[in-house]
Amino acid sequence: MKKIIFATFLSVLATVSLFLQGRPLGIGFLSYVTVLLLLWAVVYMIWGWFEKTEAKTRKRDRIVFISFFTSILAVFIVGGIKTYLRQKASEPTEAYYREMFEDDWAIYNYGQTVNGKPCRAGTDINIDLDAVDRGLVGDVGTIILVLDTGIDRRITCLDKRINVAEVYDFYNNDMSIYDGYSSDYHGTFVASVIAKIAPDCTMMSAKFMEGDNGNVEDAKRALKMVEGSGVRIVNCSWTFEEYDEELYEMIKDMSDVLFVCAAGDDEKDLDQTPVYPAAYDCDNIISVMANDSQGNKYQYTGYGKNRVDISAPGVDVKVVFPENDISFVDGASAAAAFVSGTAALMASEDPDLSPKEIIDILLESSTRNDGLDNRCRGMLNVKEALRLVSERKGR
Q1: How big is the CA angle at 249 (ends 247 and 251), to the nearest 5 degrees?
Q2: Which of these, 179, 257, 182, 170, lies nearest to 216 by C-alpha position?
Q3: Helix, strand or coil for residue 25?
Q4: Can you give the pTM of this predicted structure?
Q5: Strand ranges across the sheet with 285-291
Q6: Is 55 helix (H, G, I), strand (E, B) or coil?
Q7: Around 120, how many Cα atoms within 13 Å sit in the side-chain half-sphere?
Q8: Phi, psi of 98 (to 5 degrees)
Q9: Taking the mean position of all CA atoms in its chain, how far away is CA 234?
Q10: Distance (Å, rounded) from C-alpha 221 to C-alpha 178?
Q11: CA nearest to 67, candidates 1, 148, 133
Q12: How many angstroms separate the CA atoms of 200 and 236, rounded?
């Protein structure tokens, strides 16, 4: 019995030695087992030279067998404890998230003050903060077209370069999608918002505007070029007042593409005074208004009980302008970008989702809020939308 205890003690001592060397479970575990096997094989052979009786041989076998498997068990237990302690030590804390998103209430609103304005906790987009922190969300195969001004591809968002593929500059009729800060700030900040939500998805830039200037004909040219290219989502953070039948028909015919359209910033009731493409009656369009950090309607956003679907953050939204200039913006443009990013996450989770199904899930999962006063269905709720996608996929 003393030999069994002594051999077991040596086995555990060897395992603790590995623990103190900083080797957690799962790193070199097979090597541990191999070394132990060889060690006990040697012990077994050497011991066999000195054991001459059958009784002593059986006793030796028991000692070696018990000690070896005790060693294996010790590797599991001690390594498991170390892995657990490492994970606990590396888990982000509430204080960490509060510091990280102190001025980014749209991602995490814990009741802080942003730009001198008090926020109401819980009116953020309700996204998985750990996923945002690690930047491991979305799929590179999910393509979002930013139909807007150009984009400064050099910017970083949450310490990561945004993933942008160039298409064409339909405004200047050349291949350069970035011509300067003042001409391409809008598309750049829109892309930065999308990248916060779905950093691993691919964005394509089709430039048809510079600054505040652009026309519907160039927008239609851009859509014709990307049709059939694999684009899943088109972000339209702009509006035209005039109804255009050809644009309507183009969007309707691209039935496998989701169009996320801003409701504008002219304080219009789109039920009475529509703007386009947000007010087009198409099953693959979701129109987006803006709310503030209190969960109330942004003062100047377009709205409409029947023609506007969902609300997302659009006041004091932290964005990245060209040349990595960090600032804040107001308006439905940013709100639409949040919805586009969320739709990209949903399409990454379940590529079989149709635009209509994505819209239905976004609306079903949205958070009802009296502050919006029935001007749309509710506020964007990312975590609930992804839960419904997973639930549907598992059926």
Answers
A1: 70
A2: 170
A3: coil
A4: 0.78
A5: 164-169, 202-207, 143-148, 231-236, 258-262, 285-291, 310-313
A6: helix
A7: 11
A8: -65, -40
A9: 17
A10: 18
A11: 1
A12: 20
Averaged in consecutive runs of 10 residues, what is the pLDDT profile of the chain (395 residues)?
54 54 48 57 57 60 65 67 56 72 93 95 90 72 95 78 81 92 96 92 94 95 90 97 97 97 96 97 98 96 96 97 96 98 96 97 94 90 95 78
d(CA 294, CA 315): 10
Element at 231 (helix H, strand E): strand 231-236
Please state the domain extents for the chain.
2-90, 96-393
What is the 3-state composition of the chain as percent helix, strand, coil, each rounded to the nearest 5? 45, 20, 40
Q: What is the DSSP letter of 332?
A: H
Q: Is 246 exposed, middle or buried (0-12, 13-18, 19+ CB in 10 A)?
A: exposed
Residue 216: half-sphere exposure toward Cβ, Cα within 13 Å: 15
**Which residue reads 């350069």 in tokens?**
176
b/e burial code for range 10-26 (CB count within 10 A of at least 16 → b): ebbebbeebbeeebbbe
Q: Residue 194 is which amino acid?
A: I
Q: Nearest Cα to 267, choosing from 314, 306, 301, 304?
A: 301
Q: By C-alpha distance, which of 201, 204, 231, 203 is closest to 139?
A: 201
Cα(388)–Cα(395) distance, integer angstroms: 11
Q: What is the pLDDT of residues 18-52, one digit of tens each?
A: 544 444 444 455 555 555 555 655 665 565 555 55
> What is the chain's alpha carbon radius of gyration, rounded to the nearest angstrom?
29
User: Quick one: fold of 96-393?
Assistant: Rossmann fold (3.40.50)
